[in-house]
Design goal:
By secondary structure, the chain is of the alpha/beta class. The chain is built from 10 helices and 8 strands. It has 2 domains: 216 residues, Alpha-Beta Complex (Spore Coat Polysaccharide Biosynthesis Protein SpsA, Chain A); 70 residues. 47% of the residues lie in helices and 14% in strands. The chain has an 8-stranded mixed β-sheet with strand order 7-5-6-4-1-2-3-8, sandwiched between helices. It is elongated and about 90 Å long. The chain binds uridine-5'-diphosphate (UDP) and magnesium ion.
């Protein structure tokens, strides 16, 4: 049955609470058909051992493989499986948001669908939540499973963010537990479209705690991040957490002003002394350097304008095409 319901009712609305499970687990999945079933079974096993009621929500982020078919099959077999399918690939951030909106639990855990976030950490997340934390971060202990370049990219990314964004994301991951309060704040009070979950979950504050974990190798399939995808995430993150780059533009202007004063005085002295034909090379370099500074500055300002434009258009962050396990409630939100 193809529903083709294109729904996005903006922030704030959740499926009406029926029988509310204690814990909701949100799994963003893009082409994870190979491993999704095992992920569901493993996570359900852990939660069952914890003795909590739960639901697992898979958000199929426009997969081209059989991910959603697997989810549908799983939902037939197990009542605790629910799934949403986006009309195309909207990105992990959108998938996480859709999952948070669909979740009904008193606590919501977000976890990768490739089992790189070890479900064995879930009991620790629950323990810290019961001890009073509203947000529990699972923090990477090491990055040994990442390749050299992936590690290097992560370092640049996190370094830039902690410098400019004043949030510490060193080794942070999207593997987290959020209390219902935190979830409600994230989906109702932060309506921004360019979202960066890792940063937002820290930004909201409340009692936060963290648990270290070792990143597991991928259970199946391959990593989904392209370099371009990462750059775009980094840009969103920086732009939405800080306007420091704009201040850098101003700083750059001040530096060039000082430079201009020195070079200008020098030129003036040369002119007074009568040898005003010299300095062609200086002129050329100055022009080139200034030109690049101006272009870079325009680019930075342009990025912010683009962000404003994106937010202003008010397009939905994602479109849901199909859902399973949502009974008679409207699919997702
Ligand atoms: N993912 C997604 N949409 C995307 C890319 C990734 O929902 O456009 C999901 C993916 O299925 C996985 C998680 O996000 O569950 C992390 O992706 P991946 O394993 O590729 O990244 P990494 O482990 O390198 O962070
Ligand atoms: Mg992964």
């Amino acid at each position: 049955m193809v529903l083709l319901e294109v729904l996005d009712t903006g922030p704030g609305k959740r499926p009406a609470a029926g029988e509310v499970p204690l814990v909701s687990v949100v799994l963003p999945a893009h082409n994870e058909g190979e491993g999704i079933r095992r992920a569901l079974e493993t996570i359900a096993g852990v939660l069952r051992a914890c003795g909590v009621t739960f639901e697992l929500i898979v958000v199929d982020d426009g997969s081209r493989d059989d991910t959603f078919a697997e989810v549908q099959e799983a939902a037939q077999r197990w009542a605790w499986v629910r799934g949403l399918r986006f009309s195309r690939n909207f990105g992990k951030e959108a998938a996480l948001l859709a999952g948070l909106r669909a979740a009904r639990g008193k606590a919501v855990i977000t976890i990768d669908a490739d089992l790189q976030h070890p479900p064995g950490v879930i009991p620790d997340l629950l323990r810290l939540w019961r001890d009073g934390a509203r947000v529990v971060h699972a923090v990477k202990r090491d990055r040994s499973t990442d390749t050299g370049t992936a590690r290097w990219r992560a370092r640049v990314f996190n370094g830039l963010l902690s410098r400019f964004g004043r949030i510490d994301l060193q080794n942070a991951s999207d593997f987290k537990l959020l209390d219902r309060t935190a979830v409600d704040v994230l989906i109702e009070r932060l309506p921004e479209r360019g979202r960066f979950y890792r940063g937002l979950a820290q930004w909201i504050g409340f009692a936060q705690a963290s648990v270290p974990f070792n990143v597991a190798p991928r259970a199946a399939g391959t990593g989904k991040w392209s370099l371009l995808g990462l750059i775009s995430l980094a840009t969103t993150a920086i732009l939405s957490f800080t306007s420091a780059p704009l201040r850098i533009v101003t700083l750059l202007g001040l530096v060039t002003l000082v430079f201009a004063a020195i070079v200008g005085t020098d030129a003036l002295i040369s002119w007074v002394l009568g040898n005003n034909a010299a300095g062609f090379l200086t002129l050329e370099f100055t022009m080139l350097i200034l030109g690049s500074f101006i272009m870079i500055s325009l680019g930075i300002v342009g990025e912010y304008i683009a962000k404003i434009y994106e937010e202003l258009k008010g397009r939905p962050t994602y479109l849901v095409e199909q859902s399973v396990g949502f009974d008679d409630e409207p699919p997702a939100v």
